[in-house]
Design a protein that fits this description.
Radius of gyration: 19 Å
Order of helices and strands: EHHEHHHEHEEEHEHEHHHH
Strand content: 5-15%
Bound molecules: thiamine diphosphate
Largest sheet: 6 strands, mixed
Helix content: 40-55%
Shape: globular
Oligomer: single chain
Distance between the termini: 50 Å
Low-confidence stretches: none
Mean pLDDT: 93
Strand order of the largest sheet: 1-7-8-4-3-2
């Protein structure tokens, strides 16, 4: 169920079918891709650095990424936003090339797997310091405004429950609110900031209550319910585009795994894992598609199979590509435009 501070959303009807199925496609592709990356990591040798999954958060992530448009808007995902990135239009090869260290990847094979980006296309490279991306997107929107080329663009970014406790989050959101920037902040409340539970992370009754303190419009949604997520983000994006300033959407869900693949999440009690929060959003989306007659079992199986093929193709291509030459000091990805241009 969706509850919100400022709007009651109507039940989603047939009009949502196309978006729902497109979202389901990206959720499935992200899940299959990430499962494969996790198994390569466990096998050892091929993936250097951590592997971070968005399992359980795909519905929330995809709903924002899908409804922003590449070329006009900005989508700044975090480590659990593989689904949203694919939906926004990041090629799957960007992920496989970065994880497998291909020199042809957007970060030239020099990245720790998740800090990739295509800033010119509205996909800023992720910064690991929690909260920073709020400031980055606010800054991008401000700079476009000052240059007179903001138009009706919206900047979307993601953050976790833990990230909302940082100074960067406060400063970024406060500035965005004062400047009435068209920013949509997706707060994935997966109940834990690494191993820190919500009751040790914030003292307000609901995380969304923080929105009021910043003077931004806030919404709460079941982050496992794809239709509800699509609806609430559509509403928030429309409000931001129409000049109502920053929007904060808090999705409740559970990370279905560890912080990264190195973490077994043993600190999450079984009672929480088996609670309503712990239900798998992908499975719920498939059940919803079947119930509404939007897909058959055969079509869902075909979707999994085509995602598997897409992942296999991306990995096969990446595995034939060169690694960066460690003897060549070409340490640059998006560092400066001069260096990037020099490589062309
Ligand atoms: C400013 C800052 N402090 C600490 C860290 C170390 N750190 C990395 S992830 C993490 C927990 C993040 O929790 P949350 O924001 O809830 O996101 P989740 O991992 O649960 O998706 C921490 C403390 C960091 N990256 N940045």
């Amino acid at each position: 169920m969706t509850t919100s501070l400022s709007v009651e959303l109507a039940p989603a009807g047939e009009a949502w079918k196309a978006s729902f199925l497109a979202a389901l496609h990206h959720m499935t592709a992200a899940r299959v891709l990430e499962e494969k990356l996790a198994s390569l990591y466990r096998a050892g040798g091929r993936i250097v650095g951590g592997v971070y999954l968005g399992k359980g958060q795909e519905a929330f992530s995809v709903a924002l990424g899908l409804q922003l448009s590449k070329g006009r808007d900005i989508f700044a995902g975090l480590i659990r936003d593989q689904a949203g990135k694919l939906a926004f239009g990041e090629p799957m090869l960007d992920a496989t090339r970065t994880y497998l260290g291909s020199a042809l990847g957007p970060m030239r094979g020099r990245d720790g797997n998740i800090h990739r980006g295509r800033p010119k296309e509205g996909l800023p490279a992720m910064i690991s310091h929690l909260g920073s991306m709020v400031s980055v997107v606010a800054g991008m929107l401000m700079s476009r405004r000052l240059q007179g080329r903001l138009g009706d663009a919206v900047g979307g970014t993601a953050i976790g429950d833990g990230g909302t406790s940082t100074g960067a989050f406060h400063e970024g959101l406060n500035l965005a609110a004062v400047e009435k920037l068209p920013l949509v902040v997706a707060v994935a409340n997966n109940q834990y900031a690494y191993s820190t539970p919500n009751n040790r992370q914030f003292a307000c009754a609901n995380l969304v209550d923080r929105a009021k303190g910043y003077g931004v419009e806030g919404y709460e949604v079941d982050g496992k319910d794809l239709l509800a997520c699509l609806q609430v983000f559509q509403h928030a994006i429309t409000r931001a585009r129409a000049g109502h300033g920053p929007q904060m959407v808090v999705g409740s869900l559970l990370r279905l795994g560890g912080h990264g693949e190195h973490d077994d999440a043993s600190y999450i009690p079984d009672t929480v894992k088996h609670s309503e929060h712990g239900r798998d959003c992908l499975q719920l989306a498939e059940e919803c598609a079947l119930e509404r007659g939007w897909a058959t079992m055969t079509e869902l199986a075909a979707l999994r199979e085509s995602s598997q093929k897409e992942v296999d193709r991306a990995l096969a291509q990446t595995s034939r590509e060169p690694s960066p030459d460690p003897y060549k000091e070409s340490w640059r990805a998006l560092a400066t435009s001069a260096l990037v241009d020099e490589e062309k």
